[in-house]
Amino acid sequence: QVQLVESGGGSVQSGGSLRLSCAASGTITRLYCMGWFRQAPGKEREWVARLDDDDEIHLRDRYKGRFTVSRGNAKHTIDLQMNNLKPEDTAMYYCAVNERGYYCEVSDDISIWGAGALVTISS
Questions:
Q1: Among residues 88, 101, 96, which one has the least CA distance to residue 50?
Q2: C-alpha closest to that of 88 among 47, 43, 58
């Protein structure tokens, strides 16, 4: 079984930056992709970014210019650098993986979820 642990959440003021990290551990056969989702209060969970095992990166258009996704220092890790944060970025950010294929943009396709990292942006 794969476990995901997120770190790096917290509270910053508008315009600030945060870096989220996620590490996968446990019995890992293949992680086709690792991704980030977020869920703001009262809203549905939405896809933010994805990193495939061949290092191909996908970032949702609305976050381009402010967010970047990259491989962490270890093999099964993913980082999300968030800059120029806004109050509307306040959300729980979830790390996610798919062990079955390159489908990390739809919640129903996700194999494993992390517990989430809370990001709070104050104005």
A1: 96
A2: 43
